[in-house]
Amino acid sequence: MRDYSIRAATVADIDGARAVMLDAVYRDFGTGYVPRWHADIIDPVPFYVTPPRHTLLVAVDERDGAIAATAALDARGPEHPPNPRWLAERFPSGETAQLRRVYVRPEHRRRGLARRLTEELLEFARRDGGYRSVYLHTYPHSPGALGLWRTLGKMICDEREGPGRGSDVAHFEIPLA
Questions:
Q1: 29 confidence band (pLDDT: 50, 70, 90)
Q2: Is the dihedral of CA 150, 152, 155, 159 positive or negative?
C-alpha cells in the first residue's frame, strides 16, 4: 500500500503539478492544451499559489516523491459565456469557491486521492470564511469524475441534456458546511 502526503504546492512542486494537469487534458479530455482554457496550467503560481484566497494542493507519493494528483480552488465563479447565464449569476466571483484541476494520474487512481484532496479544499474554503458556495464543472467522460462528484454534491446542470444542449459538461454544487 502506498502512502501519500497532501500539501499546498510550493514553487518546487509546479513542474510536477503541471505535468499531471497537462497529462489529464491530453489523455482524459482529448482537448490538449487550449490557451484560453488552460493558462492556469502553464503558469499556476499567479492563479493558485500567490493569491491568498486560492490554493493548489498536491498529493505526493511518499515512495518516490512524485506528484500523483492535483486539486485547486479559486474565487472565480463560472463565466458567461461559455456557461449558461443563470449559472454565472448563481455562483458569482468572490463568493464562490470553484474547485479546479482535480486530476489523479491513472496509476494512482482508486486510492481516495481525489476525495482527500477535495476534503482539504473544502476545509480551506471554510477557513477562508468568505465563500458562500462551492462549484465545479467536470467532463462526464473523465474517468471516475461523475461517480465522485455525485457522492460529494449535487449535479445542477448537465449540458448534454435538455433544450439548447451546449457542451459535454456537467456542473455541480458541493455543500460547504
A1: confident
A2: negative
Three cell numbers, residue 31: 482537448
Written in H, E and C, the secondary structure of 8-53 is: ECCHHHHHHHHHHHHHHHHHCCCCCCCHHHHHHHHCHHHHHHCCCC
Instruction: Give the closest residue to 95 by CA, choosing from 16, 2, 173.
Output: 173
Rounded-to-integer distance, Cα 88 and Cα 170, Å:
14
Measuring CA to CA, which residue among 59, 55, 53, 48 is closest to residue 117?
59
Q: pLDDT tens digits for 93-109?
A: 999 999 999 999 999 99
Report residue 83: phi and psi, to 5°.
Answer: -80, 160
Burial 137-152 (b: 16+ CB within 10 A, else e): bbbeebeebbebbeeb
Grid cell of 100 as nine digits:
479546479
Amino acid at 63: R
Answer yes or no: is pLDDT of 177 > 90.
Answer: no
